[in-house]
Amino acid sequence: MTSSRASSVFSHTIFPSSEARTTPPELSLHQSKANTDSDWAGSIDDMKSTSGYAFLFGSSICSWLSKKQSVVAQSTAEAEYVSASKATSQAI
Questions:
Q1: PANTHER family, per this entry (predicted)?
Q2: N or C: which terminus of the chain carries fewer CB neighbours within 10 A?
Q3: How far apart are CA 73 and CA 90, in angstroms?
């Protein structure tokens, strides 16, 4: 694959147009998914939550993480927010 072909595929998947239909399905970003989850106060010792995320491209995991959060979340919503923000940072 030449660099001009790679940039062409990238531009078609990021900025869909009528030409985007010519992109092979295995290269389409429409097949990428992200899943994120956390547990609230999962650690009994310090009451910190554990965050996790996985990025899937097609049916294959291309990136994942499971890590104790650096802050003590005060609610389930806050633990989920911290997890989602970490996953968003990784995606960008």
A1: GAG-POL-RELATED RETROTRANSPOSON, SECRETED RXLR EFFECTOR PROTEIN 161-LIKE
A2: C
A3: 20
Task: Pick left, alpha or beta for residue 14 (phi over 0 → left; psi -120 to 50 → alpha; otherwise beta).
Answer: alpha
Q: How far is CA 47 from CA 38, 53, 76, 80, 85, in A?
A: 13, 20, 12, 15, 20
pLDDT tens digits, one per residue of 44-58? 899 999 999 999 888
Task: State the DSSP H helix or E strand holding residue 7, giving kind and residue range, or none if neither.
Answer: helix 3-14
Both tokens of 35, joined, read 């899943």
Which H, E and C letters describe 14-77, residue by residue?
HCCCHHHHHCCHHHCHHHEEEEEEEECCCCCCCCCCEEEEEEEECCEEEEEEEEECCCCCCCHH
